[in-house]
What we know:
The chain is built from 10 helices and 22 strands. By secondary structure, the chain is α+β, with helices and mostly antiparallel strands. The termini are far apart.
Amino acid sequence: MDPWRPFPIPGAPWARRVGGVRGLRVFSWLVLLLAVLAGCRHVTPGVAQVQSPAQVRYRPSQPSDAAGRRLLLELPGSSWDAGLLAAARELASLSNSRSSGICPPAVTLALARAGFPGDARFAMERNSGEFPASLLDDLHAMDRFQVPMDLALASRVFPDSTVLWVLGAAPHWGDLDPLPRHITLDDTLALQANVPETMDLLLYVATPDGPVNRFHMTPGVARWVDLFHVPGEYRLEVVQTNAQAGRVLFQFSVFVESRPAEPAALPAGYQTQDPILATGLLYQALNDRRRRAGLGELGVFHPFEALAREHSAFMASSAVLDHRIPGVTEGVAARAWQLFHPAAEHTEDLAVAYSWQDAMHLVWASAGHRANLLCGDCTHVAIGVALEPVETEPARLYVTWEMLSFPQGEPRPITRPR
């Protein structure tokens, strides 16, 4: 039986650059890579023809054969995933000799084609057709993570009646909002990881031309990525950083393969909108939508308006749409903690557009952002709008929504800031 694929995926360019988060794994990665390469010399990635999905997402399903059903029984609480199964089938199809192993580049390719977002590992066994019981030892070893597992089991029969089994397994640390697998040049991507709030997350994005970018992420909050300026494959990893060693929670690819449509010209005589007037109209539009959804209106929490407006100004002056801007601001929640007590519960949406109507449409069109605007526990809201400081072109509006609840009472200013 071949060893489990080491993780992170070999060949990901950021595996050498993360320092303490991943450094403990580099030596074992090299050793395992040398071990499996000997069995990969007969594998030719790209031979199998598969139908690539339109989205990166988990695809819970049910196995269609007895072997798959038995596998689920061996690990109660696990789930069968159709995307992971597609990757396992492709790896089985790429094995063109009895000595072929699981080649790391082929694993990367198969997972990218399948659009499976988890940190998957694979093992194989050859036998005369009976259930591959020896693979279960490795599967039970993975169970030490004590989280649900995504599983898949593919098989292939050779002319001599030998059966190749490929087992795929991945810890299911949380859920990832479905993402488009193909995006246009210069498009943006909203990435939201729904994991326990106790996790500190980092997002790594490896671009086709080499640079690796690192971003902070907040569980349950969409992270906008605006890096897709070169055609090709982008590798993304979401890493938990508050463990003793870094742990990969999600990893996947998105592809930039087409140019965006030509932007529509602004109407003749276009006038930049007044940010103060836009703020009042956004309050009204939000409560109108909440009423139509059967929810109560939100009161305006004026003490936080200055913080929301300040954050929008930071974004406008930096031309960065983000909840935290390194070297500029740690965000509204951090600023509120310094200036007010007790702490409020924040749910934050951000947008940039040429008009308040377009900004509202952008967040409403995103399921995760719309859920923030329709939060049932929120009682108040503070909205801040700022103009982009440009002179030679129409200025855009940067908008910050702070959806608020006060489980310990309304915050009051601290006499002496911390």
